[in-house]
Write a structure and sequence with these properties.
This protein is of the alpha/beta class. It has 10 helices and 10 strands. It has 2 domains: 84 residues, Winged helix-like DNA-binding domain superfamily/Winged helix DNA-binding domain (Arc Repressor Mutant, subunit A, Orthogonal Bundle), CATH 1.10.10.10; 212 residues, D-Maltodextrin-Binding Protein, domain 2 (3-Layer(aba) Sandwich), CATH 3.40.190.290. It has a 6-stranded mixed β-sheet. A two-stranded antiparallel sheet has the order 1-2. It has a two-stranded parallel sheet with strand order 7-8.
C-alpha cells in the first residue's frame, strides 16, 4: 500500500529537485528519502525520477503522478482539519427539539450566544410533542429536546435548566384585562382553547390539573390550528389560552398577557448519554453554564431585595 509519507517525500523531492534538499526540508536523512522513493517506484511499477549527479528530475510518469500526489495530500490535510474542527465542536450540526417559544428568554439567549461563538455549526430546530422528541433523542435523530416539567424519561438524561412564569392570554376587552395578575380562582369559570399541535396537549393537561383542583369542570376546546393562529381566536374575546413567559414578546392585535400568580413551569434538557456529537456536547456544557449563572444572579437579586427590606424596616 502507498503511504502518506511516500507521497510527501515524492512531492518534496520533485519540488526541490534533490533528495538532499528534500531531506533537509523534511528533517530526514537523504538515504531515508532515497529508500522511500525507490519503495514507491516499486509499488507503482514505474520510475518517477531521473537521477543526475546534480539532483533529480521527474520522469514523464513522475510528472503525471505529481499532480495526483499533491491532490491526495491536500485532501488528507483538509479532511484532518475538518474532522479536527468537528471534534472540537467548531463544525457540524446540533439538532434541537423545542416545545417552548424561542422568541425570548433563556433558550433564545442560549442559541444566540452559541451561534455567536460557533457560527460554523448548523442549528436545526424541530417542533413536536415531548413523546415524539424524546423518541428521537433515544434514536439519536435529535441531540437534545427542551421539555417542560420534571419528568424523568427512560434511557435518557435530564438536566434542569430554567423556569418560566405561566401567562394567560385573553382579549383586551375581557374584564380581567385590567388586572396586573390573576389567580387560578379568577380563571375557574372561563372557557379555554388549545391547539392540537405541540404544546397543546401539555397546556390542556395543565389546565385540567389546576381547574379540577378547584372543583371545576374545565371548559377546554381544541382547535386544529397553529399556535400563531390560536391567539387571533383569543382576541375575539370568547376564550382564553395559556402561554409561557417567552411567548409574551409576540404581540397580536387585541391580545393581552397576564401572569398567573405563583404558577411557574420548569424546563429541562433531555439528552442521551450515548450521544458523542462534539458540537452538541459543547452546546450542552454552555447551557449548563448559562443556567448556573442565571441561578447565581437570581440569588444575588433576592439577597439584595431582602437587605433593602431589612434596611427599610430598621429605618
Amino acid at each position: 500500500m502507498i503511504e502518506l509519507r511516500h507521497l510527501r517525500y515524492f512531492v518534496a523531492a520533485a519540488e526541490h529537485g534533490s533528495f538532499r534538499k528534500a531531506a533537509n526540508e523534511l528533517g530526514r536523512s537523504q538515504a531515508a528519502i532515497s529508500r522511500c522513493i525507490s519503495d514507491l517506484e516499486d509499488k507503482i511499477g514505474a520510475s518517477l525520477f531521473h537521477r543526475h549527479t546534480w539532483g533529480v528530475s521527474p520522469t514523464y510518469a513522475g510528472q503525471r503522478f505529481l499532480h495526483r500526489a499533491r491532490k491526495a495530500i491536500r485532501a488528507v490535510c483538509e479532511g484532518a482539519c475538518d474532522v479536527g474542527a468537528v471534534g472540537r465542536g467548531e463544525k457540524g450540526c446540533v439538532r434541537i427539539g423545542v416545545c417552548s417559544s424561542i422568541a425570548s428568554g433563556f433558550l433564545r439567549e442560549l442559541l444566540r450566544t452559541y451561534v455567536d461563538g460557533y457560527g460554523n455549526v448548523r442549528i436545526e430546530l424541530v417542533d413536536g410533542s415531548p413523546n415524539e422528541q424524546v423518541a428521537a433523542v433515544r434514536q439519536l435523530r435529535l441531540d437534545v429536546a427542551f421539555i417542560a416539567g420534571t419528568r424523568e424519561w427512560t434511557n435518557c438524561e435530564r438536566t434542569p435548566l430554567w423556569s418560566e412564569r405561566i401567562f394567560v392570554a385573553l382579549s383586551e376587552r375581557h374584564d380581567l384585562a385590567v388586572c396586573e395578575e390573576v389567580s387560578w380562582q379568577d380563571l375557574s369559570v372561563e372557557s379555554f382553547v388549545v391547539t392540537e399541535v405541540a404544546p397543546g396537549q401539555e397546556i390542556h393537561d395543565h389546565l385540567v390539573r389546576e381547574l379540577t383542583g378547584l372543583g371545576q369542570q374545565p371548559d377546554i376546546r381544541v382547535q386544529s390550528v397553529s399556535r400563531d393562529n390560536l391567539l387571533p381566536l383569543v382576541a375575539l374575546g370568547r376564550q382564553l389560552t395559556l402561554v409561557s413567559e417567552a411567548m409574551t414578546v409576540a404581540r397580536f392585535p387585541g391580545v393581552a398577557y397576564l401572569p398567573i400568580a405563583g404558577d411557574v413551569i420548569p424546563f429541562s434538557a433531555i439528552w442521551s448519554s450515548r450521544n458523542d456529537n462534539p458540537p452538541f456536547r459543547r452546546f450542552l456544557a454552555m447551557a449548563i453554564s448559562a443556567s448556573k449563572a442565571k441561578v447565581a444572579l437570581s440569588d444575588r437579586e433576592a439577597s439584595g431585595c431582602r437587605k433593602q427590606k431589612l434596611a427599610a424596616t430598621l429605618r
